[in-house]
Amino acid sequence: MTGLTALKNAYLPESMRLIRRYPLIEGVHFFQVRAVDMTRALSLDYLPGQFMMVSIPGIGEAPFSISSTPSRPGLLEFGIRRVGRVTNAIFQLKENQIIGVRGPYGNGFPVEKIKGNDLIIVMGGLGAIPLRSLLLYALDNRDQFGNIYLLHGAKTPSEMLFREEFLNFRYRDDLTCLLTVDQDDTGKWPCYTGLVTRLFQQLTDIIPQKTYVAVCGPPVMYKFVVAELLKLNIPKHQILMTLERRMKCGVGKCGHCIIGGYIYTCVDGPIFTYWDVIHMKGLI
């Protein structure tokens, strides 16, 4: 943590106001919320990779990855896909309505270990939501990190989350931004076409022992991305994977996200190393 404070009581929802919302892609919207009390809003703290439980009175609650960065206090940001009862209710919200938020939960990315090293961020699909938090954090603390590489893949340009934001990142000189789509449905896509693994061909100056990798995307993506990382000789404990399961309570009490009888994704994760994955059946 950065020395600030988390929510007053991590077990009780805190009232937050919906400040802004807009579509990212079909079926996925972007939400910005802020604690009703501005002093509280500025004191909230979390780690990239952690998640919050968002609740709608009379409907229920659900876990959502934080997409904002703690280096920009005041607002919490979420990318939410419409998939069920709670998210249907969230999609009906209007600006300035009040919701409940509790957390943060989970272990988050070990940013203190990553500092001083190079960082490769590999995202696909909804994996862009939690990894955006880590990316923005690293860029906001640029002098504490080595080279930063963003590898982002989507099926089509219209399905790429944060497309315009990431396209603009290509013009930064402190970030190598590599974007690809499986197919161009616009005829105007300015970047790569093909699977995200194709982008690894552009990584020619990697120093394995000085490189951490953060990966999040569809389950099918992990196998092929990890294979590329092992070819680069990245140490297994430096490959960090966001593995979100069906978390429910956020505090390791309900057993909904338990793995192997003793690993709770909401407490022990959702960030695991590849070393964890190969030693714990059921993580992927």
Give the neighbour order of strands across the main sheet.
10-9-8-7-11-12-15
Global shape: globular
CATH-level-4 superfamily name of the largest domain = Nucleotide-binding domain of ferredoxin-NADP reductase (FNR) module
pLDDT < 50 stretches: none
Largest sheet: 7 strands, mixed
Strand content: 25-35%
CATH architecture heading of the largest domain: 3-Layer(aba) Sandwich
Structural class: alpha/beta
**H-E order:** EEHEEEHEHEHEHEEEHEEEHEH
| CATH fold name of the largest domain | Rossmann fold
Number of helices: 8
Mean pLDDT: 91
Number of domains: 2
User: For the record, what CATH class of the largest domain applies?
Assistant: Alpha Beta
**What radius of gyration results from the CA coordinates?**
18 Å
How would you sum up this structure, described in words?
The chain has two domains: 14-105, Translation factors (Elongation Factor Tu (Ef-tu), domain 3), CATH 2.40.30.10; 111-242, 3-Layer(aba) Sandwich (Rossmann fold). It has eight helices and 15 strands. The chain is globular and about 50 Å long. The protein is of the alpha/beta class and 284 residues long. It is 21% helix and 30% strand.
Descriptive terms for the model:
2 domains, globular, Rossmann fold, alpha/beta, Elongation Factor Tu (Ef-tu), domain 3, 8 helices, seven-stranded mixed sheet, 284 residues, six-stranded antiparallel sheet
What's the structural blueprint in terms of helices and strands?
Elements: E1 14-25, E2 28-35, H1 38-43, E3 51-56, E4 60-65, E5 76-81, H2 85-91, E6 98-105, H3 111-114, E7 118-124, H4 128-140, E8 148-154, H5 163-169, E9 176-181, E10 192-193, E11 211-216, H6 219-231, E12 239-242, E13 258-259, E14 263-264, H7 265-268, E15 271-273, H8 274-279
Parallel strand pairs: 7-8, 7-11, 8-9, 9-10, 11-12
Antiparallel strand pairs: 1-2, 1-6, 2-5, 3-4, 3-6, 12-15, 13-14
